[in-house]
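During the no-cost extension, the postdoctoral fellow (Dr. R.K.) reprocessed legacy sequence entries with the updated structure-token encoder. One reprocessed record is reproduced below for audit purposes.
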Amino acid sequence: MSKKYVLVVDDDPDFVETVGMMLESKGYEVGKAYDGIEGEQSILARKPDLLVLDVMMPRKNGYTLCAELKKSRDTRDIPIVMLTAVGEAVPTTSYSHADGMAMEADDYIPKPVDTQALINAIERLFS
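Re-encoded structure tokens follow.
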């Protein structure tokens, strides 16, 4: 059986590296992207088995990318774990709870991320 390929898309390089190392230690193959446009390009180049997607990113936010992926016949079946600090940021940004509730993500993990909760969510979605 081949390794599951997980794409991590977040504009915080330290977070991407940390999560990447953690997932690799669990036997996953990891792809990395640092904003929504780069994430979209990575998905087109190689469809991941699962996507870890931050909400607040430059160029294309996670809500927009998630909505586009879920509308496409080619990508709608990719499980998506959304990472969000939006709850704390709603008063100071254009993001809203309604945006999050409208998304078809498969799970939500609040930031700061509990890495074990993220691993548990990924393993649950793969089972």
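Residues 5-126 form a domain with the Rossmann fold fold (CATH 3.40.50.2300). Residues 89-101 have pLDDT under 50 and may be disordered. The remaining legacy entries will be reprocessed before the final report is submitted.
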